[in-house]
Amino acid sequence: MASTPLRRAWLGLGGNLGDVEAAFRRALVALADAGVEIVRESSVWRTAPWGHVEQPVFLNMVVEIRTAFEPLELLDRCQALEIAEGRVRQQMWGPRPLDIDILMVEGLTMKTPRLTLPHPRKRERAFVMLPLAEIAPDLLVGNVPVRERARLLDDGRAVRLRALRP
After folding, report:
1. Which of the 8 DSSP states describes residue 38?
2. 32-55 burial string, b = 16+ CB within 10 Å, else e?
3. Which of 35, 88, 102, 139 is most buried as measured by Cβ atoms within 10 A of its Cβ?
4. What is the per-residue pLDDT across 43-90, written as a single tens digit (0 to 9) for each?
5. What predicted TM-score, i.e. pTM, was given to this entire model?
6. Any idea of the CA torsion for 98, 111, 145, 102, to the nearest 10 degrees?
7. How far apart are CA 160 and CA 69, in angstroms?
8. Calpha distance 114→154 (Å, rounded)
9. Per-residue pLDDT at 124
10. Superfamily assignment of 7-163 in CATH?
11. Residue 138: what are its φ and ψ, rounded to 5°?
12. What residues are annotated to the active site?
């Protein structure tokens, strides 16, 4: 019986309601319990809101994972974790206790009504590029290393706070 190969992927986590760091921890534990290998975690970053800016600041982080889940299966699991933390999708880019975006899956591009990979707006968002540069500075986004994209987006407003887990 052949086993399903593991793929590297990168997830962006964010939130600005309640105890966001605790929500991040619970989400990572739940993913690991489902068989997702957490390879690397960025620090937690404090960042300005995107889109609808009259809301609390966000906490963000990026994790590199290895998973046998197909992208839509992974999306379903991530969205179930968001709902478990109280996420209600009422306003695009509005406040939320937990948001998990699939940023990239190594070697894969796709566009469906539910999921586009790589994430179409990741390269313009400091709250993604700065934590991603912390754990994968040489990863290419387009033909540009993440560290270069992060440098161009760093306006000094995002602040690296601390590691989520020791």
Report:
1. E
2. eeeebebeebbbbbebebbeeeeb
3. 102
4. 999 998 877 667 889 999 999 999 999 999 999 999 999 989 987 766
5. 0.91
6. 20
7. 30
8. 30
9. 78
10. 7,8-Dihydro-6-hydroxymethylpterin-pyrophosphokinase HPPK (3.30.70.560)
11. -95, -5
12. 87, 96, 99, 101
